[in-house]
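re: that chain from earlier
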Amino acid sequence: MSRPGAPSKRLAGCVALTATVLALAGCGSDNSPSNNAGKPELKITGAYMPAPVMDTMAAGFFTVTNSGGADTLTSVTSDLAPDVTLHSTKGGAMEEQKSFAVPADGSLDFASGGNHLMFEKLTHKPLEGEKVSVTLHFTKAGAVKVSMPVKSATYNPKTGH
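^ sequence. v structure.
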């Protein structure tokens, strides 16, 4: 036979234990700095497309700056072309890539003579001053929309000409 008051002591113990477990679980919430360090914080800058000289192909350039955890650029889509591919250029040789790593607290550059986008089978030849809409697809950050202005075919972002 149990003593009077014993069930209420057990209940109080269970409540205290539950409160402790919930408090400890809160320590690992998604808002803690240690978990936010793994989340990418991406910013896309310097996007542009040189006015294409051909009716069927164009290139695109931009910089991804990441102030968070690592991510991966896996693909790019655009209404301008059904086929947009990722390319690297090493030693003068262009090679299609499946993806590009975006380092934690680092950047990924797509610049003339280096990494670039290749738009193939253009729906139309974009003219200087036009803006091309592209969507960058990242493993963790998801889809990021970018407006890519069409610049002169000889545009150099370092000089602005």
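The mean pLDDT is 84.
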